[in-house]
Amino acid sequence: MARLRKFVAYRQLDRPNTRKSKYRKKAFVKSNPNCKVVKFNVGNTKGNFPFKMHLVSKRNLQIRDNALESARQTCTRYLEKNLGKKGFMLHIRVYPHHIIRENPLASGAGADRFSTGMQKSFGKPTGIAAQISKGQEVFTVHCQKESKPVALVALKKAGKKLPIQCLYIDDES
Question: N or C, fewer C-beta in 10 Å, the chain?
Fold first, then answer.
């Protein structure tokens, strides 16, 4: 399997010309890659928690779906270990809609016969990403008031897995 490109290539927000349509003729991108995020709501989803803590983006950029899944797993594992399965609810607030495309360039012997160069450079879909604006909430943890330090550490661990600088904001509802 091919390696993933470094995310520096996809970090800037582009105008998405990756229209998905149920009519194949109208869709710009003919196939849609699967989302690697397994669950967007984790923990005790029916519980009533008075305290919320948010992981907020400091700048505009894209986050690939495998980075979101990695951050979710890290945060969930830490919260389950310290609060139990019923002591929290984790909510991913963004969805990866944007399709990342890659124009494969041939290299090696005889590459000039196979390569189209920039003639048809629209590219094939390789993955999906969530487009995030400055100040947007990426993760939210709902828990009890006394669990605030645990939620903060969990969000900091999740923030280390994401390619952004984060703020950690708490509020009580």
Answer: N
CA torsion sign for 142, 13, 64, 33 is positive
Query: Residues 150, 130: contact at Cβ < 8 Å?
Result: no
135 CB-side CA count, 13 A: 0
Distance CA 18, CA 36 (A): 19
Measured between alpha carbons, how far apart are the two ends of the chain, in Å?
Answer: 46
Domains of the chain: total: 1
Count of alpha carbons within 13 angstroms of residue 88, beta-carbon side: 28
Q: Is the pLDDT of residue 17 over 70?
A: no
Q: What is the CATH number of the domain that holds 71?
A: 3.90.1170.10
Residue 145 and residue 83 in contact, taking contact as beta carbons nearer than 8 Å? no
